[in-house]
TrEMBL record:
<protein>
    <recommendedName>
        <fullName>Ankyrin</fullName>
    </recommendedName>
</protein>
<dbReference type="InterPro" id="IPR050776">
    <property type="entry name" value="Ank_Repeat/CDKN_Inhibitor"/>
</dbReference>
<dbReference type="InterPro" id="IPR036770">
    <property type="entry name" value="Ankyrin_rpt-contain_sf"/>
</dbReference>
<dbReference type="Pfam" id="PF12796">
    <property type="entry name" value="Ank_2"/>
</dbReference>
<feature type="repeat" description="ANK">
    <location>
        <begin position="29"/>
        <end position="61"/>
    </location>
</feature>
<dbReference type="InterPro" id="IPR002110">
    <property type="entry name" value="Ankyrin_rpt"/>
</dbReference>
<keyword id="KW-0677">Repeat</keyword>
<keyword id="KW-0040">ANK repeat</keyword>
Length: 145
């Protein structure tokens, strides 16, 4: 399953599961197939593993965090759809920060925009955001140092 995840050979997932391969098996580094597929940016493999029950929060390394921190906007959408945004504001034990903050630090503007839009859609104050935008607020403005 790890080879499938690494090379993005998602079409073999069902065959391996039918043969009894554990979708959550960790390799010698403690990485699951889902972690490997996310790290390597294999969008379809990530989606297929999640559809078949892979644990997106294995070893405190969330799919959302890993995809966001690498700038994989296509993969970021997958865990957001599957979890309804769960984990978006959850700090990470190893980083001590959220996916949004880590992604912003690394300069992936398109992924930051995806994460902010997802949060604004859930936020009870999203009406405030819409009001400010309707009045010409620039969501891309930066603080002056």
């Amino acid at each position: 399953m790890h080879v499938v995840a690494y090379f993005g050979l998602w079409g073999y997932i069902d065959q391996l599961l039918a043969e009894g391969v554990d979708i959550e098996a960790a390799n010698y580094k403690g990485l699951t197939p889902l972690m490997i597929a996310t790290y390597d940016g294999n969008f379809m493999t990530v989606e297929q593993l999640l559809k078949r029950g892979s644990n997106r929060d294995a070893r405190d390394m969330t799919v959302l965090r890993d995809a966001a921190s690498r700038g994989y906007s296509a993969i970021v959408d997958v865990p957001l759809r599957w979890s309804g945004g769960r984990g978006l504001n959850r700090g990470d034990k190893s980083w001590g920060t959220t996916p949004l903050i880590k992604t912003a630090e690394r300069g992936f503007a398109d992924v930051v925009e995806d994460l902010v839009c997802e949060e604004a859609a859930k936020d009870a104050h999203s009406g405030n955001v819409q009001f400010l935008l309707s009045k010409g607020a620039n969501p891309h403005s930066k603080d002056e140092d």
